TrEMBL record, chains A, B:
GO BP terms: L-proline biosynthetic process
Annotated compartments: Cytoplasm
Domain Aldehyde dehydrogenase: 24-304
Name under which the protein is recorded: Gamma-glutamyl phosphate reductase
Organism in which the protein naturally occurs: Actinacidiphila glaucinigra
Family: Belongs to the gamma-glutamyl phosphate reductase family.
Length: 441, 441
């Protein structure tokens, strides 16, 4: 600390000297400086920059798609799975869709400046709690180039600078996208360093980000469980844990069977690879004999394999379903399949379902299907997850579906943000109190 | 994880097997179980328990004061500074005051159940974002027995279980207080394990708390800078950083000199040992020759030593003040004195003051004294601290002063909570969405 010199000449004075040697920390310091410039900007200036980004993405589609083709070719050479290659691929249509998302963000209200609380204190002081940007947001993510632009637009709109640490397998795509975004940001008169790709493809660059407390205000890891675990365990920068979704559908003793089948099928099979898809079915014993034959046939028709406890297997055998039913082990209860698989168990009561969920859930989304108001009330009270669905599919836990516009991730931790994170979740607050010479007695 | 057995019999089923050997983790598991019981409790039940605690503290004052006397005697034997012995000491009056604080917490609104956001989505789903308890709150603190009861009452009121890791030098006091609190909590029909002293006096017990991710939802370190640094750097449980206050008073070019002197003196000298006391004075060059002679005399009268830059020292020499003025080094700009000392510098502009603050402040509270509306606006916009005071003492940044009732600490980080933390800051939220068979298309 004492290596910092004291000078008040200009903004550079609020950066430490000597200038750090690490390119990652240099990027963080430039982001910090850009964040100071962004914080007081009014909405119209930020929206103009966002619209300039959207225009530039469309105008420069060709260079983006060409850069992306290099990543795609390299991924294919490396024998990458087609589903991952598909997520990596940018077409002109997809670039237009990304640009359209940026325009949507421009249309969202600006969270910065919102007065969250305000009052006049008994002594006459005016107290206001006001939303302010977090400052510098670091995002660590995998090979999805659309995240690059989504994160940049959400951070800009909320007055934050962003450090983007994408996957090396999307490096050409991300470089092209960030070049286009930075040119547009600079052209709109804002600091281009508000959006930066973190230099270096090695794990070391992630490690440096995780140590940059005081320079980076929050790290949001998006991606696989091992990446998230590493960041949560090693970062001294505050982290928001995202994403793992071991979601449950519980069918209560009293339930509309049509709704139960529809909610189960949509939760599991509408898009199995995403975090808000269901991974476990729990059925109350009183309705199991009525519900399971229909449910198993519906799952069979959707190509879903059922990893079942003894009671589900017994009923499956008795009803002669065509479903593929295999024995469940303890591991099935905690697995996020992200595939056409579901674990299934019969439970003795609603409370037993809640206990199962408390024990095994990742805290993302749990659904109850019931016609009983007391059961719905008890389930929503006792389940301790980011979202609880009543007679609705788990698939609705999503920033877009919730009406937040875009989302920067889905928090499965309790601090700061829980569930889908939109623009307000990218802010902090500041108290301002105003008097006329007030002192404490 | 796979060592956990699958069973739905009772609440114990939601705890891992085998039962942990570590007493700290056992306490955490018991807290988790208690937290599940507390979460759905209505306000009246929690308030009854709080009032029972307050009554018990008064009734059992004698055993509390006797236990405290043992700690005080040991502290005196160890040659502990009288100011610390004073903070450790409990008298019957102080116990009554602590009980009165508990009654105040009972009178505060219950944050749990508050609907933070609510809407009906375009597809007809009813979406509600509802405040819920965090779960298990861990507090690590120094030898202030009043914190034991404050933390317990705030956590109970907000539906959280609390793990109290106090200082070994207050062990007898904390044990007596927690015994009284637990007896009252149990007597009111709530789980006594909602309030537990963390077993073990060694650093190892702190280390175990910091590793208990998934069992402890947040750790709040209160105390010295080194304790806070250790917890921030080593914990994988989410942390809220509290407390360090390198607060600034900036006297602008246009300022009412009477107000400037009053705010400076109150900010610095009304209670120098606390985090919201001012540690640095910045004076605009245009008002320095008028303001500093009066300010230095006032500081001299209050017994404050001034650590001054060259320009302040020059003016001090010219005006012949009786103040003790010593040369400032770079270290003075970053020091939280917590004593009758203040650093002082002349700055060339409001922006230069902001740069100084951005460089050296701990992000707690900064005050501007000005009669210029544009200056007040620019200062409050550009200063990036938890609180900004306009023509008011820095000493007002306090949960009690802000009308939050008690406070569990003052956050100097940006995530989750910033500034004084009251009951809402001890909560998370949960989304509940209700449909009638809604599925995603």
């Amino acid at each position: 600390m004492s290596s910092r010199s004291h000078s008040n000449d200009d903004l550079a004075a609020s950066l430490p000297s000597p200038w750090p040697k690490s390119p990652v920390l240099q990027a963080a310091y430039r982001a910090r400086s850009a964040a100071a410039d962004l914080a007081p900007l009014p909405r119209s200036v930020k929206d103009d920059a966002l619209l300039a980004i959207a225009d530039a993405l469309v105008v420069r589609t060709r260079e983006i798609v060409e850069a992306n083709a290099a990543d795609v070719a390299r991924a294919r050479e490396a024998g990458t799975a087609e589903s991952i290659v598909d997520r990596l691929t940018l077409t002109p249509e997809r670039v237009r869709a990304i640009a359209s998302d940026v325009r949507d963000v421009a249309g969202l209200p600006d969270p910065v400046g919102e007065v969250v609380r305000g009052s006049t204190l008994p002594n006459g002081l005016d107290l206001r709690q006001i939303r302010v940007p977090l400052g510098v947001v670091g995002i660590i993510y995998e090979a999805r180039p659309n995240v690059t632009v989504d994160a940049a637009s959400l951070c800009l709109k909320s007055g934050n600078a962003v450090l983007l640490r994408g996957s090396s397998s999307a490096l050409h795509s991300n470089s092209a996208l960030v070049t286009v975004v930075r040119d547009a940001v600079g052209g709109a008169g804002l600091p281009a360093d508000a959006v930066q790709l973190v230099p270096g493809e090695s794990r070391e660059s992630v490690r440096e980000l995780m140590r940059a407390r005081g320079m980076v205000d929050v790290l949001i890891p998006r991606g696989g469980a091992s990446l998230i675990k590493t960041v949560v365990e090693e970062s001294i920068v505050p982290v928001i844990e995202t994403g793992t979704g071991n979601c449950h559908v519980y069918v209560d003793a009293q339930a509309d069977l049509d709704i139960a089948v529809a909610v189960l099928l949509n939760s599991k099979a509408q898009r199995p690879s995403v975090c808000n898809a269901a991974e476990t079915l729990l059925v109350h014993r009183d309705i199991a004999a009525d519900f399971l034959p229909r449910a198993l046939d519906a799952l069979a028709a959707a190509g879903v394999t059922v990893h079942a406890d003894d009671r589900v297997r017994e009923l499956a055998g008795a009803c002669g379903t065509k479903a593929t039913v295999v024995p469940a082990t303890a591991e099935d209860w905690e697995t996020e399949y992200l595939s056409n698989d579901i674990a299934a168990a019969v439970v003795d009561s609603l409370d037993a379902a809640v206990q199962h969920i408390r024990l095994w859930s990742s805290g993302h989304t749990e659904a109850i299907v019931t016609t009983s108001q007391p059961a719905a009330r008890r389930f929503t009270q006792l389940v301790d997850s980011a979202a609880v669905a009543v007679n609705a599919s788990t698939r609705f836990t999503d920033g877009g579906q919730f009406g937040f516009g875009a989302e920067i991730g889905i928090s499965t931790q309790k601090l700061h943000a829980r569930g889908p994170m939109g623009l307000p979740e990218l802010t902090s607050t500041k108290y301002v109190f105003t008097g006329d010479g007030h002192v404490r007695g």
